[in-house]
Amino acid sequence: MAKRLIPSLNRVLVEKLLQPKKSAGGILLPETSKQLNSAKVVAVGPGERDKDGKLIPVALKEGDTVLLPEYGGLEVKLAADKEYLLFREHDILGTLTD
């Protein structure tokens, strides 16, 4: 049973991207190799309000690839085979582009 989660305030729901186990040349990469901790944005909240009550929208959008900190985020299971992480917008380190 799949569910849809719409984050509240300035929170962002992401799905971690799995890093390849082999290099482009076919060499097996060890588990301890340093990889980027990246994820795909699945859903974003509407944003948070400032002191005057004006809405400050979230700068990220669905489909963005972002860089995550090594630790943090709240694990969320929406389906039996999918795991997601919920972060505040200011905890995300940046956006990755091609």
TrEMBL record:
Family matches, as InterPro entries: Chaperonin_GroES (IPR020818)
UniProtKB keywords: Chaperone
Keyword Chaperone attributed: yes
GO molecular function: ATP binding; metal ion binding; protein folding chaperone; protein-folding chaperone binding; unfolded protein binding
Record has Chaperone as a keyword: yes
Any one cellular-component term (Gene Ontology): mitochondrion
Purpose: Seems to function only as a co-chaperone, along with cpn60, and in certain cases is essential for the discharge of biologically active proteins from cpn60.
Subunit structure, as described in the record: Forms stable complexes with CPN60 in the presence of ATP.
Family from the record: Belongs to the GroES chaperonin family.
Protein name listed in UniProt: Protein groES
